[in-house]
């Protein structure tokens, strides 16, 4: 039997995980904010679709995809984080429950997070390249800014590969 003080202390530590709950509620509010921004963009550009050049249309679609990927990332962090660190969802969601829910551990969450960041960064980079004008005067960004966009994107890619390698090495070490 553990001493009563130690037992109470451990129960208090375990209960402190509920301090994360307001943060997850804040993420729900953030998801609502992204939804509003998505709808605002959609309703702003939809009436202009018949006057848009192809490049403008592609940039609008890429922006909407970017917002959707960010929202997907937010849901993954929200559901996985809550289930991993606070409490399991213990209600019957039926067939609507995403397959990955309850199966994504912290390592998996890390990999989904970096993969989403790389995808969002890649879309952002593609948008910047599509904004390159025919002349230097038309260009929204200079060579230096574009170079930094590429460097930052490659940093995300390399970080993702290194994180995957570390997880693979760690899993291999545990098998021994």
From TrEMBL:
Transmembrane residue ranges: 21-46, 58-79, 109-126, 146-169
Keyword hit for Phosphoprotein: no
A single cellular component GO annotation: plasma membrane
Subcellular location: Cell membrane
Membrane topology: Multi-pass membrane protein
Top-level division of the source organism's lineage: Bacteria
Keywords: Cell membrane, Membrane, Transmembrane, Transmembrane helix
PANTHER family (alphabetical): UPF0114 PROTEIN YQHA
Family membership: Belongs to the UPF0114 family.
Name of the protein in question: UPF0114 protein GCM10007315_18330
Species in which this protein is naturally found: Neogemmobacter tilapiae
């Amino acid at each position: 039997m553990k001493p009563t003080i130690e037992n109470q202390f451990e129960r208090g530590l375990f209960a402190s995980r509920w301090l994360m709950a307001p943060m997850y509620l804040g993420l729900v509010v953030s998801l609502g904010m992204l939804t509003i921004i998505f709808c605002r963009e959609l309703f702003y550009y939809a009436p202009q679709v018949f006057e848009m050049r192809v490049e403008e249309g592609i940039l609008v679609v890429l922006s909407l995809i970017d917002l959707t990927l960010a929202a997907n990332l937010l849901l993954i962090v929200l559901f996985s984080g809550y289930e991993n660190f606070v409490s399991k969802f213990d209600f019957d969601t039926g067939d609507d429950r995403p397959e990955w829910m309850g199966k994504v551990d912290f390592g998996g969450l890390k990999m989904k997070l970096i993969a989403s960041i790389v995808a969002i960064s890649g879309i952002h980079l593609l948008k910047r390249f599509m904004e390159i004008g025919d002349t230097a005067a038309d260009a929204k960004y200079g060579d230096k800014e574009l170079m930094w966009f590429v460097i930052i994107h490659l940093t995300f890619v390399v970080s993702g590969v290194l994180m995957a390698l570390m997880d693979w090495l760690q899993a291999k070490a545990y098998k021994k």
